[in-house]
Design goal:
Layout: H1 2-17, E1 24-30, E2 40-49, E3 53-54, E4 56-67, H2 68-72, E5 74-77, E6 80-87, E7 89-101, E8 103-108, E9 117-124, E10 131-137, E11 150-155, E12 170-177, E13 189-192, H3 203-206, E14 210-215, E15 220-222, E16 233-240, E17 268-269, E18 282-296, E19 304-316, E20 320-321, E21 326-327, E22 333-340, E23 345-358, E24 363-372, E25 375-393, E26 401-407, E27 413-417, E28 421-429, E29 433-440, E30 450-454, E31 469-472, E32 479-483, E33 491-501, E34 507-509, E35 512-520, E36 523-532, E37 538-542, E38 545-552, E39 563-570, E40 575-584, E41 590-597
Parallel strand pairs: 2-11, 17-23, 25-32, 33-40
Antiparallel strand pairs: 1-41, 2-3, 2-8, 4-7, 4-9, 5-8, 6-7, 9-10, 12-16, 13-14, 14-19, 15-19, 16-18, 18-25, 19-24, 20-21, 22-23, 22-25, 23-24, 25-28, 26-27, 26-29, 29-31, 30-32, 33-34, 33-37, 35-36, 35-38, 38-39
Length: 606
């Protein structure tokens, strides 16, 4: 039997040798994951709900508008493009995106301008009022190595916290409006935002301000296309205080930072709906603003009223009129503005007269007839200036400082979250005088840390006993602030990025971007972001607490994960070295190759 098998094998070998074969032994050769592309001067935009932290895992739709040339030359990471369309003229473009990552990253490409780039952002989230903001990407020469910084865009819930525990100067009311089959309101309804009760945490910051929306019986409700809307309809009205005596405390973010489009919009429309260059050079100083939304059960939004209805503000008597420099008085007028939530533009709506003084609430009544729903804003106009300033710490610079400008008499608050060094804050009201505070950003110990300050000529600026200073903001151009922070035994967290093949463990050190958050309960609050070079490590010094680090890669040839995150509990004195791994399927980490011919040197034929 053995001889028979051997003979058969020899015969097969001879037959095989008689044939020419080009077949090869194909083997799987392991290869490392492909390299990512670097982020070029990235600017990170975070989406947060007011008092709710990051909107990670929430679908956010947003529009970016700007020069078609500049917009096309930017890379947008962390979001998918929804559609593209022109707006106004061929030089202006609007791209629509959707994101569920809590934000997105803008970065330059080789085709991008190296000059400053300005874009208009409009944000839409179900269950929140639409908002917008002007986004400025600094000139490339002005951007530090770790990126262009970050912007937090805050959206306001349709229904706000009325428990008395909120410290934010915002109140709201929700009512059901009964509507007939012909789209007319069945019975008169007045929707009024409440005055905080004595002892509520935001009582002082709201300062008696309210808004009332009065809808008479017989008013016809229509959508944006002019179709009548039938009920029942849920109406949400939210009032944002101008904070005439400041915020509740330094831990509370100002309601004015939620102002749609920012307090210095890049474009404003006149009463005829046309862009007005002069108006686009102003800064708003608010006497209070409101957001109004009316929606049917199937999601249809009310847009227009026939005939117009009354919108009434109670304006705090502590409000300072920037045109007079004195507190507001009966008989004065305040300009009124409405906001187009689709285009993200403010439009002039004429003036409203300051009416009677209400002694019980220490407010003045201001009424304006309106014919459509949107944000409405009582805003004075002010000229702008830019303020360059330098921040130093005499003890340690292992944190991110927050510079806060709060105007006396309310209506304007500016916030700059910066690194140590010299920075420029844009579009400050020229007649803005008030308080400047510098704190650690999103710390558990918010207190102003200014120890000393000098103006551009080296002259000392008086510092208040609480670590703040009081000045005309524009006069601080060229000033240097020296702060003295409390020494905290921080933890050091070092992080790098790599892609890892599942199965064979092949790795590629990657360049990328990291956004990081501080966890408070079940909410995450953005702290910033930074880019990391290939094979590099970045180190943060952080207060003890729980943090999340979200890494992101970009590049057309990437395989597997391009986003990952790690949640870390940091304690005092820790020194943690971490790597964020982006996993790549094993099938993407091999190529098929051969080892040469497997036959004889060629047969002689038969």
């Amino acid at each position: 039997m053995k001889k028979t098998i051997l003979a058969t094998m020899i015969g097969m070998a001879v037959l095989t040798g008689c044939e020419r074969s080009d077949n090869q032994n194909e083997v799987a050769i392991p290869v490392p994951p492909p390299a990512a592309e670097e982020f070029n001067s990235p600017l990170s935009i975070f989406f947060e709900g007011m008092g709710e932290g990051s909107l990670t895992d929430t679908e956010v739709r947003f529009n970016l508008s700007g020069s078609a040339i500049e917009l096309d030359a930017l890379d947008v990471s962390g979001a998918e493009i929804d559609s593209t369309e022109g707006r106004n003229d061929t030089e202006v473009k609007q791209n629509k995106y959707v994101s569920s990552t809590g934000g997105f990253i803008l970065s330059r490409t080789d085709a991008s301008s190296l000059d400053e780039i300005q874009l208009d952002l409009v944000v839409f989230v179900d269950g929140y009022f639409t908002t917008g903001q002007t986004i400025i990407i600094p000139a490339a020469a002005d951007i530090p190595e770790d990126g262009a910084g970050f912007v937090v865009v805050t959206v306001t819930p349709n229904v706000v916290d009325d428990s008395g525990e909120s410290t934010t100067a915002v109140t709201g009311s929700t009512e059901t409006v009964k509507v007939n089959d012909d789209g007319t309101v069945a019975e008169e309804i007045v929707i009024s935002t409440p005055v905080p009760q004595e002892g509520d945490k935001n009582e002082e910051a709201v300062a008696g301000g309210t808004v009332d929306l009065a809808i008479p019986a017989g008013t016809t409700l229509k959508d944006r296309e002019g179709n009548v809307v039938t009920g029942p309809i849920e109406a949400n009205v939210v009032y944002f205080s101008n904070e005439p005596v400041g915020t509740t405390d330094l831990d509370t973010e100002s309601a004015l930072l939620s102002f749609p489009g920012g307090l210095a919009p890049s474009q404003i429309l006149d009463e005829d709906g046309n862009p007005d260059e002069e108006l686009s050079e102003i800064t708003f100083i608010s006497a209070g603003f409101t957001a109004i939304e009316m929606r049917t059960e199937d999601g249809t939004l009310v847009r227009d009223f026939e005939p117009p209805i009354d919108l009434t503000f109670q304006v705090s008597a502590e409000t300072v009129n920037p045109d007079t420099g004195n507190k507001v008085q009966t008989g004065e007028t305040i300009p009124v503005w409405s906001y187009d939530e689709l285009e993200g533009l403010w439009k002039a709506e004429g003036d409203a007269e300051v009416g009677v003084f209400n002694e019980d609430s220490n407010t003045f009544t201001v009424t304006k007839q309106i014919s459509h729903l949107s944000y409405y804003n009582l805003d004075y106009k002010a000229e702008r200036c830019d303020v360059e300033f330098t921040v130093r710490d005499s003890v340690t610079e292992n944190y991110r400082p927050r510079v806060l400008f709060v105007r006396d008499g309310g209506g304007w608050t500016g916030q700059a979250v910066v690194s140590f060094g010299t920075h420029t804050y844009r579009n400050v009201p020229e007649n803005g005088e008030g308080t400047v505070a510098i704190t650690k950003y999103r710390t558990t110990r918010a207190a102003s840390l200014i120890k000393s300050a000098v103006d551009k000529d080296g002259n000392a600026i008086n510092v208040n006993t609480d670590g703040t200073l009081t000045a005309n903001f524009c006069s601080l151009d060229g000033a240097t602030f020296t702060v003295e922070s409390e020494v905290v035994d921080n933890a050091d967290y070092s992080v790098s990025l790599q892609s890892v093949c599942e199965g064979n463990g092949e790795t590629t050190p990657q360049p990328g971007y990291v956004r990081y958050y501080k966890a408070v309960g079940d909410q995450n609050y953005s702290l910033g972001g930074f880019s990391i070079g290939k094979g590099s490590t970045s180190t943060l010094s952080l207060e003890p607490g729980t943090y999340e680090f979200h890494g992101e890669l970009r590049g057309n040839n990437l395989k597997g994960e391009t986003k990952t995150f790690n949640r870390v509990e940091l304690t005092s004195g820790q020194n943690i070295v971490d790597t964020l791994d982006f996993m790549v399927p094993a099938s993407e980490c091999v190529v098929t190759g051969g080892t040469g011919g497997n036959g004889g040197g060629g047969g002689t034929g038969s």
